[in-house]
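lol forgot to send this yesterday, sorry. struct tokens for the thing we talked abt
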């Protein structure tokens, strides 16, 4: 019907909820290696909701709801996320920590108030500063991870301004997740934590050994996890303490002492192949150099048996092998 000459025409239409999509207005694409809770925080912010009230949208009460989502992968909450974002349940599952073979090495969801006590999540300030949309990585939940191989610096687990832990789930203001909930400090501005090359190398080797053995499920059957948890006792830094109970700075001090000791504690295993593989990783400072050596060896072998003119490969073999390992660690 027409209200007045030349004015707008009002027509009866179908119900609004029948003509609009179930999808939330803003879609947020998950980043490589991103933690499910990190993506959920970014999703809430992009759609104009602070993390604490967004937890209620997903059916959670007060408390560490987003970290609980990482560990337990509650069906009701992830179904809501999948329905309203279009991201499949398997893709959401790979962002979580549910069923991780490295579960015993994850930092606990607690804050005991002690300065040297663990906090549940770590971060690299320079990674956050480089990100177009700052996000937290799954590997930052591991107690064995104490440095960033890309920026060659140590990780942090607290706001440097107020010493509070990372508690994005408790944010009531509409601000990005890289701002401290307690004091508002921009975590991207935190100073660089210096870590020696030998400590970073040991950190990377342990990460590679755990990752590769998790793929083959051998990590579930051997004593490696128990030895990693006992690192504070092995290096005689914090007697009787478990690695997951310590802050990032305390674990860095453990690694500093650990690099002065022989690596027998890390290499030994009942399986001779496992011992050889661990020794090779430690000798090469990680599996990335081993992949390059393997690629070179395979290429030399190919040239010996095919002396004709070499065809230019479309992809470097080392890149292909690295991508394969990354796919195995984070299956689609």
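and heres what i got for the seq, position by position
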């Amino acid at each position: 019907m027409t209200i007045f000459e030349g004015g707008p025409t009002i027509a009866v239409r179908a119900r609004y909820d029948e003509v609009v999509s179930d999808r939330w207005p803003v879609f947020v694409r998950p980043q490589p290696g991103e933690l499910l809770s990190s993506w959920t925080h970014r999703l809430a912010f992009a759609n104009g909701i602070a993390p604490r009230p967004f937890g209620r949208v997903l059916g959670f009460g007060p408390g560490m709801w987003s970290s609980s989502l990482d560990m337990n992968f509650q069906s009701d909450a992830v179904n809501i996320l999948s329905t309203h974002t279009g991201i499949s349940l398997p893709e959401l599952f790979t962002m979580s920590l549910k069923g991780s073979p490295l579960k015993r090495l994850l930092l606990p969801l607690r804050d005991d108030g002690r300065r040297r006590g663990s906090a549940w999540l770590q971060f690299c300030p320079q990674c956050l500063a480089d990100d177009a949309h700052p996000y937290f990585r799954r590997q930052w939940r591991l107690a064995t991870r104490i440095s960033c191989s890309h920026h060659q610096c140590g990780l942090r687990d607290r706001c440097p301004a107020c010493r509070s832990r990372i508690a994005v789930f408790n944010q009531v203001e509409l601000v990005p997740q890289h701002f401290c909930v307690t004091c508002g400090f921009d975590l991207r501005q935190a100073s660089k934590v210096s870590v020696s090359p030998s400590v970073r190398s040991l950190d990377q080797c342990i990460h590679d050994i755990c990752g590769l053995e998790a793929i083959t499920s051998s990590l579930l059957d051997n004593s490696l996890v128990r030895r990693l948890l006992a690192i504070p006792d092995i290096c005689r830094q914090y007697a009787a303490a478990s690695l997951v109970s310590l802050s990032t700075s305390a674990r860095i001090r453990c690694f500093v002492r650990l690099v002065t000791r022989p690596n027998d504690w890390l290499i030994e295993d009942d399986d001779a192949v496992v011992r050889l593989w661990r020794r090779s990783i430690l000798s090469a400072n990680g599996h990335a150099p081993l992949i390059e050596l393997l690629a070179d060896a395979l290429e030399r072998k190919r040239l010996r048996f095919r002396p004709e003119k070499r065809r230019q490969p479309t992809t470097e073999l080392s890149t292909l092998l690295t991508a394969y390992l990354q796919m195995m660690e984070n299956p689609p």
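Residues 287-329 form one domain. anyway ping me if u want another try
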